[in-house]
Amino acid sequence: MDDGDDRDDGNRSYGHKSFKRSKSHFADRITADGRDGHPVAAGRYRLVVSRACPWASRALVSRRLLGLEDALSLAVVDPVQDDRSWRFTLDPGGRDPVLGIRYLSEAYDRRETGYPGGVSVPAVVDVSSGELVTNDYQQITLDLATEWTALHRPGAPDLYPRALRDEIDTVAAQVYEDVNNGVYRAGFATGQQEYETACEGVFRRLEALAQRLERQRYLVGDTITEADIRLFTTLVRFDAVYHGHFKCNRWKLTENPVLWAYARDLFQTPGFGDTVDFDHIKRHYYQVHTGINPTGIVPLGPDLSGWLTPHRREELGGRPFGEGTPPGPVRDAERVPPRGRP
Known about the structure:
By secondary structure, the chain is mostly helical. The chain is 33% helix and 6% strand.
């Protein structure tokens, strides 16, 4: 999903009273039985992401943890959009080498010309037809975990264990409403009371999550689950963009001992931090959101070296991958450039 650009994200709406994020317009599912007409198949689909976007980052992490690199190819768009939205200017000739398009909007147009809304990531595109299949950021990762199991790597973790789904769903809903989306409601608020209400909600939920994580390593159960992925993608952006750019500045992540240690634990876990590009994150937020930052100046900070410091969360126990194993090394073509890493 787009990161809140007030020009072209169709998954948001703005009113005089509050920021609202609408549902994904294209919600077809890719399933093992193909009941929506899109069966799981290796090589059939391409995942299009922006490393700047927290919603797309969920899919990046899930794909890595589950070992779906061979089954689901990856396209990374430029973090800075133009008037046609997400573009493939990072690729030679400015075209995606698999889909052959310059803009993600071309895949949207092949699916539905003149659809209501903007162009958002993550997006899954059918390679043979070039048509968008889904931009349902909430469902994509759940389906990767549960419908793509035949293509998971040996030792892949269970990110959505059946016995814990109700609890995962409850925690994820709280995280979404108050944290994932809450920072946007604060950042795009157009009135003082609207901003204060959203900002207070962000920190009230973060403090509750910190209390929960004082006594357990992960949000639900003793392994990494979908809930952790959804919280991580906001926490990893917190000090870099949400604290200053979105005015969520009651305190920094680095000032909360529990959440800072939890975030570092995940960041240092293979599959999490190795998908994060801080350069893309900062350039997107500060250069695209001109309504908030009209100068387009990208700040030099914060210092990122702390992400690699010891966290001692292993003392709480837990098994990051359950009965499974860590993913292998990042493929050369998918490595985050040095400028985007701590």
